[in-house]
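hey so u asked for the seq, here:
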Amino acid sequence: MARVGPPVDRPSASVWCLIAVLCLCLLSARQRLQASPNSAALLAKACHFLWQQQGDDGGWHSTTHGLLQSGQALTPFVTLALLDSPETICVRPPGQVAPALQFIRQHVNATGVLGVADPDVLEYPNYATAYALRVLLRAGEERDAPLRDAMLQYLLQQQFVEHRSITPADLAYGAWGFGERHLPPGHTGHVDLSHTRRVLQALREAGYTQPITYATAQVFLRLVQKHPTETRLQPAREAHRTGTTPYDGGFYFAPSVPDANKAGYTPPTATSPSVWRSYATATCDGVLALLAAGVGPEDARVQAARQWLRAHPALDYPEGIPSDHPGQWQKVLLYYHLAARAVVYQALNWPGDWRQEIGALLAARQRPDGSFANPYGAPNKEDDPLLATALAVEALDHTLRDSAGPPRR
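ran it, structure tokens below
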């Protein structure tokens, strides 16, 4: 006689459905993981392309934009991207680093400025000098110590503070600008968050510790973050200057150069004026500037910007810029945005699959020779393969860093 045991519970149809869904999810995740690009291979190809473009004089020279043709601004930017990438992936061809360093040395003038070799054309002097200083710091050669000191002193003199007849009431107070020559006292010319970030990073990496410089820089950063404690009147449309400025934690780009703000104005409301919108690339620059100015990652200002970035997570375009913007800046800033996100995310130990997502976006855009170029990028010069590829190298480098740490770019 067959033995009769206790009844066996069998999974219900709903349980089988749940198991099937879980299996599909696991399979999909595994497929996504297997389909994730090899960022190291992308980086190796991009670095190889850049090294191949080095000129006989050791510099990198644009054939796309005349303003970058001399190589004064482009060479330190490309060199830093290559030197910061791991040598095990971004192989440095023998005999090519030294000429790049020598190019920089030969083009820095007696007062420590790079980008002013042509008396008629300025090639981003503050940008170029900040990047060149960082490159020479990486090289660490003793013979460059006087040159590095001259560059440091030049950058300090460029800050818009009292020694340039700029007072705390001025919208540019604490910031850095383009580096125009012969500005009269009290005049600022072009001032923006991106220049300010790059100079602060150079000062920090050079070991400069005077707190007043960083404290005054934070005054400017509070303005472009539209911080609720800011007492200066925010730039706004003339018809909409009343009410409380809305604070969302994000940053805009430039308080005194209206055309430089890529996201335009917010619409006015009954309680707030029409002021500059926060947008993703400016907010990334703002976070990196705050960190370089000595503000810790747990500070409320950094955390507020982090919340803004979390609420605007798109990686394939910089959120905050309207999709109908006539300048199409959401397309122009593709590689700048990816690089800035990668640096910020790595610095803040950002959770999630951002490394794979950035890698996938770049894998879809890398050209057969290893280069990148943005067909919409002419206004920001991202249509130049040298500039776009250096930005892609920066982004890929930071996707390969596992843990949080001070951003190096």
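The radius of gyration is 24 Å. Residues 1-11, 15-35 have pLDDT under 50 and may be disordered.
lmk if thats what u needed
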